[in-house]
## 1
Amino acid sequence: MKEIKSQIPSMNPMGSTMQTLPETILHDVIIIGGGPAGLAAAIELKRLGVSDILILEREKEPGGILRQCIHDGFGLFRFKESLSGPEYAARFIEQSKAQEIECLTNTSVLEITPQKEVITASGNGLTTYRAKAVILAMGCRERTREAILIPGSRVAGVYTAGVAQSYMNLKNIMIGRTAVILGSGDIGLIMARRLTLEGAQVKAVFEIQPHANGLPRNIEQCLNDFHIPLFLSHTITNIKGHNRLEGVTVSQVDGNLRPVSGTEKDYACDTLIISVGLIPENELSEMAGTAIDPRTHGSIVDEFYQTSVKGIFAAGNVLQVHDLVDFVSLEAERLAASVSLYLEKTSLPEAGISIESDLNIAFTVPQHITGRSDCILSLRVREPVKKCKIILLQGDTVIREARLPKAIPAEMIQIPVCAADLVSLEKIKVVLEHE
Amino acid sequence: MTQIYDCIVIGGGVIGSAVARELSRYELTIAVLEKELDVCTETSGRNSAVLHAGFNNKPGSLMAKLCVEGNTGFDRTAHELDIPFKRTGKLVVGFDNEDLAGITFLKDQGDQNGCPGLELVDRDRIKSLAPNIEGNFALYSPMTGILNTFLYTIALAENAHQNGAAYFFDHEVTDIFRSGRNLSGRSEPEPEYEIQTNHGRFRTRWVINCAGLYSDKIARMLGNQDYTIYPCRGEYFILDRKLGPYLTMPAYPVPNAKAGGLGIHLTPTVDGTILIGPSAEYIDEKDDYASTQEVSNLLIKDGARIFPRLQANSIIRSYTGIRPKLTGKNSGGYADFVIEERDIFPGAINLIGIESPGLTSSIPIARLVINMIGQKENLREKPDFDPHRHSLLCFRDQSRDVQRSLIQADPDYGEIICRCETVTRAEILAAIHNPLGVATLAGIKVRTRAMMGRCQGGYCQTRITELLMQEKNLKPQEVLYARKSSNMFFGRVREI
């Protein structure tokens, strides 16, 4: 047995270096996470003249989840061309290198305090940093089978879509031969195609909602092109097998998403891919004391992307789960502008105007604004609607109206809000109206 | 000629491992035959991990006696084996008159059994002991505690192993023969058993049947047809550690005497999460660990009655365990532990129906087995027996100063593999190279807590798999999740 205990060095008898208090390293900006949000924020900050930036990245390489997204379709908005995930990331990585932005890889953040101290672990030891501004850019994680309480056996062969993607694309490991996919989230759709291209049989995708959760282009290119059926209003009600997955039971669900008895159908399969949504990864944000919005699962922010803790900012999937990485980059670039302003002024104006939405709208970001600067309001609808209007009201006054040919939960909607449009310091209501 | 062991223990659960550990104090050759790939993969690893005080069992029963003994002696065991253990105390809460009668009965029973410090307490006292627990009155048991059932069983097994006991995993007993012939060099006729497994035959003078759910089957192989094990499944949920601080001690309802278990309760774990469960459902198969929709709903409903903070969205994992009961569906309740050697089958000790409070009673049960052997032959203590065993060091629980020096000594402590539970590469490697030689993903999980957090391995599972393949030189298709045939992969995507 590896004797771990004996490896703890006894405190140095000579009383030298080891006992001295570790120093705190100061930076203007510390960015937690070297994925698309963190990289874009760093590069934009540099462009705006902020030079003392440190990115902390837990992986061996920056790039975040893009590293395993080897399919294309990234960058259509940001670069007006279709790139693969690694290509999209490479554009930012190269730029950050060219700008000599410091990025510490293989470095995990253990703790962030409200005083903006950041404690990291790496092979070099524990390090304490303190920053004038901390940018949260940790991204998100996947909801699991356990989070949605699918009954049945806990067997090998049940993977979340992202884990499956990591095994296949980063580790060159084949996860299954006959698969069923639960959830029509984008990564699940991408994996349906990926598994098919590598010779596996994907029997079907089941979605509990009456509408698809992935982007229409992914339904088309990943399912329809490969004749993989998508069953809406269906869910998995049993996972079967003793050791490796042997099959699943699928049931139709009613209007309340409850399984309808008598509709059960069995599918033999050795692999189940779960693609049932993403959750912003906010353990560190909570440690830092930022208030969390139960709707987004991300920090509550103002139009500067500043959280409830002054000097701590958040952007990208840690703030709200995005549909396209392009919007993550753009959001992080807007965040960089406000961080730069914060560093210059040492504080930002109070955001006293809260933004509330009706039940048709799942959430809005930001959750409150100052009313003194223009900003972009991101939101998602709960149900798909054709021809609709999104209306912003202060009292009874319509301050903004956006007409949409359609709105689906899979797509993030962005509406510009101009300070000039506001009529008071009252709260803003966001309402969805059918046309 | 194949080796003749002095003792072969069938089953590497908490009872088999406690027996092996206690036997390893003596000049005996010992082998443990375990059909699974690790210890505590069945009942021993699938329970509430509570160290019971002993008030639930009938006065005069073995269960009552051994449970109280096991409870009292556990501080020493935990210290010797270097495992986490907390004497939290426990509340059995009641709401109505029927409950009050039940609680009074439990207190009287506990007093007779010799459980120290039992108290009937009112609502105010409940609120001071456990502010987030609901109940109008309760039985408070100060001696009840919590432990980590995996780490306890692993510690027993490792300690047995380091004192000379041999563990054979993936060794399923398929038949047992008794020759009873006179062995050369001995003056008395000695019984001798030959145990057939899927990997060859073993010979031994003593057979100790600690096969849990299958102890009836092994007993029949040993000539004892009298017992039947009725599998009774219990489902559990594990709650996010965010809720952990709100539950300071296990909180139980008043047990229903006809049910197969103690009722759906809440238990803090030594790791900071909360368990809720178990249900009690008699099932046909001894290997059906599936959970069901009906019970899931029941757990949330019953749990929230005692612990209103419980919400479905705080669940991070479910699991089930199966009680090896000697009482069937119609009678319910508890039969006593069976621990016996019959004159017509000398040298065969059967331990049957070791359900709750088996975990608490494990060391006293093992001592009882030793006494039975000691009555037949002179047991000589080994001068070099070492009761102490060291746990893997847990980076997360160390102070920042200790963490700093750990990384300085071994940079692998600076690489956080599991984010949710803060498990380092050094700990994963230590688990992979554990003394028992276990090489499944679940084996790493139960030893380190990696993959047990709220993302359930979403971040770390691929990394741990990679480390396992690298350290054990495995091909992807050889990686197992937990049990035989639980293969995780089908080879490479592309051969390079």
Note: Chain A has three domains: 23-142+278-348, 144-276, 350-435.
## 2
Amino acid sequence: MNKRILWVVAIFGALVLLLAAGLGLNPREVPSPLIGKPAPNFELPLLQEPDKTFSAKQELGKVWLLNVWASWCVACREEHETLVQYSKLGGAPLYGLNYKDQRVEGMRWLARYGNPYRASFFDADGKVGIDYGVYGVPETYVIDKRGVIRYKRIGPVTPELLDKKIVPLVRELERE
Amino acid sequence: MSRLFAFLFLALFAVLAAGKEAEPAADDPALEKRVMALAEELRCLVCQNQTLADSNAELALDLRRQIREQLRGGASERQVVDYLVQRYGDFVLYRPPLKATTVLLWFGPFLLLALGALILVRRVRRPRAEDPPLSQAEHARAAELLDPGER
């Protein structure tokens, strides 16, 4: 009898642990298959200067950050201040991918909340977004000197994440 | 009079006809069928419990358009799936491939079934412990319950 109770408790305990671990996972964070792979190249017009284009190849040899944002994205506003702070540090350049936005709205957003980006690229139909596996804006990529994606953040960048993960990673990659 | 009614009746339908725009890209039903068949197999990343075919999230629309364009361009189903897996990972597949990391996913349920069957078989086969013999008082009570007519 005692043995049976022990069994029941053990199985129950194991289930609780399993479910607790499951609850702790975030199902929205799908591991990106792009980490460790070359960042897809693209050529897009700049948000603020439509007649100029940017190609991801231009940044080869540098560590850079790509942040996917849009004026319609609420969580982007949440992280925006953090990005503005980052841009003031003068570290690796931060570029913006203005994803499925209206040009006027995007520019108004930058004028109102500050522009942390060295440049923003205008991805009107979201094609480049698909190449980068974007599914929940905002997303942030760290790309190394060889043009390989080394880190991806899905969701807003927080000051803690910036201090503890992104900035140290960028420093490390710059030494590579 | 009836002519007026007919006119009003038809006018109503005219409003209905103008009410909703048709779904785009039904120009090639065969292609559309392939697109939807493939989209049924793929997970929408925004609303994760829906297929790309079911979902009307912006991204699902975009991805369906991508699938359509690629199939129209002559890509095979396999190539389109590879294209999406490259970008979004195995997660987009409703039927994930058999890999070291997915062995438990594929065979876990069968393992549990086998375990359950084993426990069941062992329990059924175990000889049941003999019931302890009844005491005098219990015998008397049983007799009383079984034969109430005597009273």
Note: Confidence is low (pLDDT under 50) at residues 18-22 of chain B.
## 3
Amino acid sequence: MKHKLILFIAILGCVISSCKDLQLDPKGILGEPELFGTAFGVKKYFTGIYFKLPIEDFIYYANGTGNPNNGYQPGNNNSWQAYKNSLDQMCGQTFGWNVAMGNGFGYWPYDNIRLVNVFINNFPAYKDKYDVATYNSLLGEARFLRAFFYEGMAKRYGGVPIVTEVQDPVNGDPAVLNVPRNTEYDTWKFIYADLKFAMDNMVATSESGRANKYVAAALMSRSMLYAGRSAKYTQYLGFSTEAAVQGGFAGMDPAKANEFFQYSYDAGKIVEQGPYSLYTKNYPDKATNFANLFLDKSSPETMFSKGYDGQTYGHCYDALMLPNPDFSSFVGTEAGPTLDIMQKFDFPALTDADGKPVRFTNRSDIKNAMEPRLKGTCYFDGDVVRGKTFSIQRGVYVKFTGPASDAKNGSNAAAVNATSNRILGNKGDKYQGVFVTGDHGFFSGRSAENNAMMGAYIRKYIDPALSAAQANVNKSSQSWVVFRLGEIYLNTAEAAYELGLRSEALDYIEKIRVRAGCLVTRPTLDQSVSSTYGYPIEKSLQFIRDERARELYVENQYWWDIRLWRIADQVLNLYYPHALTCYYVFDEGKYIYLDEINRDNRSISAQKRAAYEPIPQGEINKNKNLLPQNPLY
Amino acid sequence: MKKIFYLVIGATLLSLASCNKIDNWDEPGSRLHGNVIDSYTGTNLVMDQNDWQIRIIDRTWEQKNKTVATYQSIPVQKDGVYNNSKLFSGTYDMIAYDGPFWPVDTIKGVVLGSETQQDFTVKPYLQVVDATATLGGTALAPTLTFTCNVKAPLITGLPNLYEVRPFLSLTTFCGNSNNINIGDYNTAQSSTSATASAKRSINRTWAAELTARGLPANSEKIPYTMGPLLVKPGYTYYVRVGANVNALSRRYNYSPIVKVVVP
């Protein structure tokens, strides 16, 4: 017993003396000193934030009610339905699945802004670990990221609360936590201040997917153009009695417009000092060149892109933009281009001087007079990709002797469209030995999905290197081009024109149109005023806006453009997308193309209130200082 | 055995004790109704069913719960009447918001008891008068041609004249919220002549439209003709014409509904 006791005491003594202080820092966790104390740590911290930037890319959902599957979906690897509900589908740029016009989805990224504010407020403590240039560049990059989040909100809501401190949600004073909305003017100026610092301090070169001072200038060019438009055109909406407008939360004094246009113009000039140039590698084939601009990861025109590797994170663009089974191994096409956008480019006449449909010997002859940029943007009958040829036809007319207007835009009530004269059908159907439709459409027995309802398919961003078997869910790895020099030229052109520098504006348009292969590369300056949209606009400025629609087609820009020009409710006022439909005229042995209203008679309307999205009601319930709500909500 | 018995009794008593919460809120039963009166004619404003709504905000609930209330909407019917008999009593603010008339003030402090009537008198932006719908075409392909005159009682500060539009319906409800959606009818024609083959798009001030149409500057009415538009033989339609200005949601002012029987 005594031995046991001594042994016990001895062991106890050892144990007690080995009790050390356990307040040790865990060695495996990266805390603030590790993340902010080294450039690599900062990069790690920023990577998570880049991932969440509001970039409307392949997998962006257009509308919704706060459902987590709507809007931006960082890291979501099963968002194939986003192609049905895309932004371009919602605003009538493409036609396919029916997407209801939505109010938006309550984008309110103050949690991400907090991550950036933590950095901006705490980083100065580590200043001595860096040389001055690197320190300032990293701070500039943080302010670029913050400006990106605020731009995502400003273009939706107008004025939002500007938060630069890291708030204490537990012990903070509720009066301070309930931040009020700032005015729209102050919000855009805040974005300007952050981006100006970024432009002045960031390094000039960066790895792919990371920003540099020119990327900050690109965001400045785009966001200040939006601000200038909002300042200049909101007054025409007729909202002057609304509380949000009277308080300056939605809309600004039109006299401020030129201030923002000047910021945009100056930023565009800075971008031009960078190592960027328009993509011309595949000249003289300007159609292929325009298509490759989006696929070539070493393109000198791409300034900032968002990457996918097709394995951990892929997207479904190839699977869902071309028909199954010849070009895709998944569901097939969810969207097609409208005739309205096709005819904005250089496009052949569909009717002759007497109003009768032009006769084509072959279906694909229609491409002969098409602008190369249109051929690089869309696939038409006769184009070849993935070893197969597109074959698109709607039906057969037994006879078609009159003018195109006899067909009444495809209406079933027109006499020439009686079932005895206009033969429609499905794959494999024949009329007296002749196939009624093409292999890929347009089939009368199918819905819009996997059916060539618009008469053409989208080519932009399609990766021809994939086989049909590889075009499947999440296997696409094209990067999404966030900023490219082409867009900056268009931004500068518009800003310059608004500032009165008309000839210089047309210089930029000329560069774009030369690259596009247009017939007329420099339009004549036309200052005559039209008022299609209820406010005066010079014809050449309208041309610049149209050039934007052509160049940036299906890059998720159009919706923001028509909203910020304050014409969304007029452009989309019972807008019926039209289709390019090809028919074989049996008694002549030739083909004609008609302009038809889409078969489903579907129209798209945006309400005037779509110029602003509503501040999310859930946020107002938590903080009533966010009132007044935006107009008409 | 006894233990089990007492256990069962105890459990039953406990479960009964927890079922004491009955929904003791009163069913909402306040009735709020009224008319939207056209100040020029003195009778109810001619509308389409649920084109726009009266907004009401429950201030009593807001104060009680120290929060921000969202508005509720009461649809306005086609005869200019609104009616809701399932509201909670309290004190409300009411706004005749976003209708086809000049803005009116919010009416504050409306107390809802068992029944409250609150009328609104409004000044419509436009009046659509002398409207006709004439049958034409052939027996197999009949058409309708619409004509009307548009008047604007108050021109100073009037937003842009926006559209004049024909509406076709198979039921007695006809207008922007109840119509047959036909591409032919709804494809906007913008021109400066009196006739158009479908919906007329204008988007000019009253004075500019008079100038564009070559009418004298003090004209009271502007005539419009739309059509001929296809209809189907053997059907009975209810038709009317609407016109709007570019204010808020661009609600329409209408002509009376006309019944057209196509032989």
Note: Chain A has 21 helices and 16 strands.
## 4
Amino acid sequence: MRRVLAIVRAQLRASVALALQYRLEFLVEGALAILWMAVTLVPVLVVFGTRGAVEGWTFPEMLLVLGWFVALKGVLEGAVSPSLTAVIEHVRKGTLDFVLLKPADAQLLVSVAKLEPWRVVDLAGAGLIFAYAFGKLGRTPDSGQVLAAAAMLVGALLVLYSIAILVVSIAFFAVRVDNLLYLFQSVFDVARWPSTIFRGFLAVLFTYVLPLALMTTYPALALLGRLRLGTALGALAGTVAFAAFARTVWSLSIRKYTSASS
Amino acid sequence: MSLRAAARAYPALLRAGFASAVAYRAEFLIWMFSTNMPLIMLALWAAVARSGPVAGYTQLGFAAYYLCTLLVRLLTGSWVVWEMTMEIRQGTLALRLLRPIHPLLAYSAENLAAVPLRGVVALPVLSVLLWAARGQLGHDPLLWLMLWPALFGAWLLTFLVMALIGTLALYVESAASLFEAWLGVSAVLSGYLVPLDLFPQAVQRIALALPFRFLLSFPVELMLGKHSAGHALLLLGGQWLYVAAALVATTLVWRAGLRRYSAYGG
């Protein structure tokens, strides 16, 4: 375990140092992150200009969901995607050999290979959204609710990462399809709305098959103190099973990998 | 090179571009599928309109609006800005400069040639639109006639803005980021996220004067029959004025930029 932590720390330090070389890009990308956050807020502002509540969600409650969405999107595009896009590139060029040869777990190595540190702007923005929402609600969540939200957040991050690993595993079989990860990033946009917005087939799809809606809705519900214990435990159990499944698929795929030169 | 020679070469370029789009069809399809924002917005507005129409939009009205938006976006998309910024940074633009045809013309042929394939992807969207929300579409045949030049104008304006910002990569390194900013502003002001007539009056007035609406909202408004024929013709003129301005600007910036360009390693 100490070895794993040491590897993660070394990798993160290297990728942050690499990214910090480009200082102007840091500023530009930070400004862009703020712009996109504003763009994300526009439809919600327009909706609540005409309505007081949508499907039982008031404006500040909806902001909590959006806050989690902005934060998770930052993690996805700042930490998960850049590394895993690099894996697909490795598979295509055959340079994955160099990763596999190293005396450490390959999944661990590829998962922390690249970071875009300016996406911390997203996390800061999410913090601002939360502060504003709770100011509007006129209360603060108690420690139990924060703890529950944190547990749901860990679950959400695990699901996010597992889906990304599954998508990358496809690259071992279909190298040509190197933009699948991009497709997933765009599908993730549905997580900006609470899961109860969706009806019928879509509700089932985004709750059970691709549990995107839950990733932002459950942490928000936890902060509001409306998440039932049974639901929370069920979601966490499902998360662990899903992560195990993703790990298995990754291991099977990597066995299929034959380097480009062999 | 003369315009006649370019006109002779153009069909061959189109054929080559089409062949390359077909060859990379799997990737192409995935790029198309990742255009899903109108559907995500539709999910929200459909939930809102469940309890009654919003400013004249019923659930079906929103469905028609966002399906038309998706259709227009699928048909009028380009990717030239990413290609240009990459080729300029990597120096491969030099290869294009050697060929006896203007690089911007070659780019336009490649992007235009993908439109038939885009149409194939758009077909299911069109069928759903006709099946589910036919009653919401406009009835004036004149507007439907004007839709074609409006769609072509939207494609051309999208392409030219992309080419203009891509050309800026000859001057600054962060041209791709600049385009990202354009995309963000355009998402709001072109009606991609929210129908323009739902914005407050002040925002609407700004949005109607800027070029963004002609990229997307204008063809959608024609499909939904929101204008009289006379007013639509006026708007079509406005769209093509913006197209002409973008063409002039792109040509000038390209010419001046090329003088500063020296390929990396060249």
Note: Residues 2-256 of chain A form one domain.
